[in-house]
Amino acid sequence: MFLGRVIGNLVATQKEPKYEGKALLLVQPVSPEGNADGKAIVAVDSVGSGAGETVLVVIEGRSSSIAMGQKLAPANAAIVGIVDHIDWES
Questions:
Q1: What is the pLDDT along the chain (90 residues), one digit of tens a residue?
Q2: Which CDD domains does the protein's record reference (predicted)?
Q3: What angle do CA 73, 78, 79 make, to 5 degrees?
Q4: CB 30 within 8 A of CB 47
């Protein structure tokens, strides 16, 4: 699981049927301070997040499928939460 910021969305007119009704978003991993931390990934949105929001992302295949409400959905990453704030001390 990691923190990320939604930086874009993808439009796919042809896609796996299990993705129907789900948004595909581009997510930039971020540190708790909000700094970019790694390469951006594509994640299936299961919570209705939007551009600029900080989100919680799972990257385990089985967890991603469960978050989508689908058994064995072909997903590497899924957004499972929208972060309201982080209480963190360095």
A1: 999 999 999 988 887 777 777 889 999 999 988 999 999 999 989 899 999 999 999 987 655 555 556 565 666 888 999 999 988 776
A2: EutN_CcmL
A3: 150
A4: no
Q: What's this model's pTM, rounded to 2 decimal places?
A: 0.82
Residue ranges of E strands in 1-90: 2-10, 23-29, 41-45, 54-58, 78-82
Q: What is the CATH number of the domain that holds 24?
A: 2.40.50.220
30 falls within a domain: yes
**Which CA distances in Å does 52 have to 6, 49, 79?**
5, 9, 14
| Structural domain includes residue 57 | yes
Could you give the CA distance from residue 78 to residue 24 in angstroms, rounded to a whole number? 9
Residue 80 token pair: 């499972």
Q: How far apart are CA 63 and CA 58, in angstroms?
A: 7
